[in-house]
Design goal:
By secondary structure, this protein is of the alpha/beta class. It has helices at about 15-20, 30-35, 50-60, 70, 75-90, 110-115, 115-120, 140-145, 150-155, 175, 260-275; strands at about 1-5, 25-30, 65, 90-95, 120-125, 130, 135, 160-170, 180-185, 195-205, 205-220, 225-230, 245-255.
Length: about 280
Amino acid sequence: MVISVGFFDGFHIAHQEVIKDSNIVITFDTYPKAFFNKINSNNLLTTNFEKCFLIREKYPQTKVEFFIFKKIYNLLPEEFIKLLKELYDFRYIKVGYDFRFGVNASGNILTLKKFQKKYNYELVVIKPIKVDNKIVHSRYIREYLKAGKLDWVFKMLNRNYSFSGVVIEGNKMGRKIGFPTANLLVSTSKIMPPYGIYKVKVKVENNIYYGLLHLGPRPVINDFDTSIEVWIKNFNQDIYYKEINIEILQFLRKIKNFPNLDKLKEQIKKDIELAQI
């Protein structure tokens, strides 16, 4: 039995190396740093559902289990190891080089090494993995995403950044100018890239389409709240209250104001031409 343990936010290429060849992945329902209020909870690359989906997609034979963090955060490091051993009777445990666990994050790689003989397991530690001399880490990917450095995000995830959202009713302004959009309700835990217009791939019930994502305010109609909406090419189905997946392919431009809707319509046509969709 091989288990791997970690939070695995983003499921980046280093996480993939940790999880590879594992029978079971143990992760947590809550981001530990968010639990202790050391970081905002709306600072994640993947929701729990997305993380589980991505792991199972790449490693279909691997089982994913979530520990409820508030029930185990105050265990002593040895108590946590003992709990894992009792639950899974594993022979190998795989973790990343900076893995911490137990009360006050007092357990680390040295702790796991210390108890190998007592609990009859072997520790496998995945060393830092670099891309172009930069260490792959969820913290850095979050920073790159917030800065709009999508090329670095892609390199470290080995895929485009994506998110899912439920389609909700909007003001149907796009429909009035010939470009109907799906307004999305997205988990507040997700990090989003900077405001702008993006070329995207859209997955609707296992069908793939392409379109434009508007992320940010809509000054042309005096709406300065953040709007997340997507225009989907060659698509006219009713998808209200269904969940769709958005994969970000390319940043096209920043949000602009327009004197009227006709000017906005002209710009959307230019965006479509630029995106080559």
